[in-house]
Each structure stands twice: as structure tokens, then as C-alpha cells.
Description:
Layout: E1 2-6, H1 11-19, E2 24-28, H2 38-48, E3 52-55, H3 62-67, H4 69-90, E4 93-99, H5 125-140, E5 145-149, E6 152-153, H6 160-168, E7 175-178, E8 182-183, E9 186-187, H7 188-199, E10 206-209, E11 216-217, H8 218-229, E12 237-240, H9 260-264, H10 272-283
Parallel strand pairs: 1-2, 1-3, 3-4, 4-5, 5-10, 6-9, 7-12
Antiparallel strand pairs: 8-11
NADP nicotinamide-adenine-dinucleotide phosphate (NAP) is lined by residues 6-7, 9-13, 29-30, 33-36, 56-58, 60, 75, 79, 97, 99, 130, 149-152.
Amino acid sequence: MKILITGGAGMLGRTLCRRLADHSIVVADLPEWDITEGDAFCLKASEIQPDVIIHCAAMTKVDDCETNRDLAFRLNEEGSRNVAVAAAACGARLIAISTDYVFSGEPPREPWAWGEGDFTSPRTVYGESKLAGERLISMVCPSAVILRTAWLYGAGGPSFVHTMVSLGTKEGEPIKVVNDQRGNPTSTDVVAEAIAFLLEKPEVSGIVHATCEEACSWYDFACEIKKLMGERFKREIVPCTTEEFPRPAKRPKNSALRKSALNVLGYRTSTWKDALSVFIRSEF
Ligand SMILES: NC(=O)c1ccc[n+]([C@@H]2O[C@H](COP(=O)([O-])OP(=O)(O)OC[C@H]3O[C@@H](n4cnc5c(N)ncnc54)[C@H](OP(=O)(O)O)[C@@H]3O)[C@@H](O)[C@H]2O)c1
């Protein structure tokens, strides 16, 4: 298949390029490809005539979105619409990547996890703009797959795993990590694998959640990174609350996702601990 990947130079995009290397891949990223330039994007895409567009490009810095609301919507809403228009014009299947931040993350708490059909109510500009993008994509391309993932890390980063390893492998004070936000740490390899599976299932459309199985807090995630790094990780990790670590964007308290759509297809993702162990071995 000929597959065009928007944001193909980003963290997930790079993993996809590697995983899908058997296909003919076109990386559509800045500066040559700009999803906010609708006409130019559509024209370039129509020259390629892709079978599939995987849409990863986005404004992904959650805190920056709070202070740059217009830019967040320009990329995540209008940019997504432009990609959907191009997919429709080319007759390409569209797989668009979205996020757990479309949910409020408010209680009910553990063991609650958000299903594909659950009510969305984002609490951040990033989440609002991604949800607005989802809606335009579904309007323009009703057969698109909207694949929501979460808490990503992948080769080269940047990610929470890279930050923890960089901090933890230097001597210093204990590292405080938030223990009252829960989600699904997810390797980009796991997402790429799920996308490879979906490429074999052209009949699938609509919202599909794809994260690793099982949920934990950022503190649990950090402790597992420390454990896997062994003696190379020199610092202690101590739990703290969200209030002790204020950020511009209000993170969801519980954004764990249920993978009903994939499970119905008989597909199971790895647990976050298994995927993390594979990643730490290969990356560090
Ligand atoms: N990272 C996570 O934890 C996470 C969680 C849930 C969902 N997601 C979603 O997963 C997708 C991929 O995320 P990621 O972590 O791989 O993000 P990333 O590393 O920031 O990759 C996004 C890519 O899009 C590019 N881009 C930005 N503006 C563009 C434009 N106008 N036109 C074309 N390309 C543009 C970026 O280029 P520059 O670097 O030059 O800006 C970057 O290469 C996104 O849709 C994100 O919302 C991510």
C-alpha cells in the first residue's frame, strides 16, 4: 500500500515508518508538508494518490496549547479537517490519531476506564482542539478510523520515559512524581502494531482505543522505569499530588481507556509493564 503519514517525523510517525517499511511510505511533515495549508496539502496528496493516510501531525505540547489556543485549534481542528478533505479527495482511507484528553478524567476512579462511546468532555485546550478535530474528521470522512491513544513513549522521545531516565541517571535529590493521575503508559511500537493490524481490516471505521493494557499512576510508571534501569538509575522516586506539581493544563485524574473495539476484533495489546520492559532494553 502507499501510505502517507502526516507528522511522520514525530515520535509516533517515526515508529510507524519503521513498522510499516514493507509498504511505500511518504513522510508528510514540516516544512514541505503543512496541514494548515489546506489547498497545498490537498494538491500534494493528490499527486501521491495514497491508499491510506495516517494522520499523526498535531500540536502535542499540552501546556503550550493553553497559552496558544488559536494555534492549537489551527493545527488540531482545521489541520485535521484539511487532512480529511485530502483523504476524501484521494479516496484514501484515513486513520487519525487522537487522545485520552478528550475525556474529563474526573471520577469515577479506578477501575473505571473510558470506552469508545463514552461521553467526551475535555478539560484542556489540547483536548478540546483534538476533539474538535475528531468531529470534523468524522463529518468529512465518515469511514475514518479515529484511534485514541495515551501516555506515549517511543524511540528518540521526547517522553516521560526519556525525562525520567535523564534525571534518574544523574546523582541528585529524590524525584517527585505525581501519584494521583491514572492512565495507560503506551509504547509507540504497540500503537504501530495495532495500526498494522487495522490496515488489514479495511472494514473497520469509527473510534478505536489503542493503548497498552492495564493502568497506573505516573509514580508507578516512574518506579517501573527505575526498576528496569537497575543500578544505572541513581535517584529515589517519591510520590506527590497534582497540587504539589502544578502545570498550566489540568491533566485528567483518570484517563485510562477501554479497548472494546480492538477486543471485539480479537486483538489484545501488551500490558504497559511488558511493553516498557522491551522498550527500556532497546532504547537505553
Ligand atoms: N505523545 C503523547 O503522549 C500522545 C498521547 C496521545 C495522543 N497523541 C497523539 O499522537 C499523535 C502523534 O504524537 P507524537 O507524540 O508523535 O507527537 P510529535 O512527536 O509532536 O509529532 C508530531 C509531528 O507533527 C509535526 N507537525 C506539527 N505541525 C505540523 C503541521 N502544521 N504540518 C505538518 N506537520 C506538523 C511536528 O513537527 P514539529 O516537531 O516540527 O512541530 C511533529 O513532527 C498526535 O496526534 C498526538 O495528538 C500523543
